[in-house]
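Illustration: Cell shape determination protein CcmA.
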Amino acid sequence: MFKLPGKGKDRKQTSHETAQGLGITSLIAKGVTVKGAMDLQAGIKIHGRVLGDVTIADGSGVVLLHAESEVFGSILAERVFVAGTVQGDIRAREVHLYGTANVTGEVSYGTIVIHDGAILNGYAHHKNADRSLLREKVQTKVIIDAK
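Result:
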């Protein structure tokens, strides 16, 4: 379960409530492996494994990665919630790394929340919230040491 911003300080969302509230229309179930890039029109919830990039059309929508999920590729979306493993770059206006998150790669964000226990190995870049800037390469690099 995820505790999402704006939904009450102490209230956790069930998977069904989370999916409805975030416009998620696709699911990769636990035990399922998808090989190849995924170009989506709406949000996705991932419990399984993706071997390829995950892109939401025009950088909009939500990618929700549960604790058992693994993504080996880049992620482009409006909002990204990570509780699992990502080996690749993340580009989003809003990024949340939960306590079980393990991210290796560059993270470009407008807003980032890193919860206690999350691991980020790579570069983090603050970006203007303008969606068009999510596709541009950032020149300034900030190293975050998650010890």
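Reading the tokens back as a structure: The longest strand covers residues 90-97.
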